[in-house]
């Protein structure tokens, strides 16, 4: 079986996390209702345990209900940055190597085509009129 790779540091699915927190809150509140109802027939020192459950379970339920899961906490592995190759061959490499071609993308086509230098062409001076 292939190992899954994490591509994000996002935690648990929010819908799954919310459903889990709602389930835990519901369970704690059901236990609290049982504690409150059982106060009517429990006697002796057990009444302290039931009363503590009736008082402390709401706090516990709210704390569990508001605790958001953050996942494993592992950040994904960052990819290696891209390296730009130089246009000049390395001096260590000797032989019949051809220098890589340099492609310029940022130059406007009108500037490249206007290298004729004709006086009638307004872009011959770099687009400046004067």
What descriptive keywords fit this protein?
130 residues; mainly alpha; 3 helices; 0% strand; membrane; transmembrane helix; DUF3099 domain-containing protein; DUF3099; transmembrane
If you had to describe this structure to a student in words, what would you say it looks like?
By secondary structure, the chain is mainly alpha-helical. Helix content is 39%, strand content 0%. Helix 1 (14-38) packs antiparallel against helix 2. The longest helix is centred in the N-terminal third of the chain and has 25 residues, at 14-38.
What topology does this entry show?
Elements: H1 14-38, H2 46-66, H3 109-113
- Mean pLDDT across the residues is 74
Largest sheet: none
Number of strands: 0
What is the helix fraction of residues, given as a range? 25-40%
N-end to C-end Cα span: 72 Å
Structural class: mainly alpha
The count of helical stretches stands at 3
How much strand?
under 5%
Task: Tell me the Rg in angstroms.
Answer: 36 Å
Shape: rod-shaped
H/E topology pattern: HHH
Q: Enumerate the spans where pLDDT stays under 50 for 5 or more consecutive residues.
A: none
What is the structure about, briefly put?
By secondary structure, this protein is mainly α.
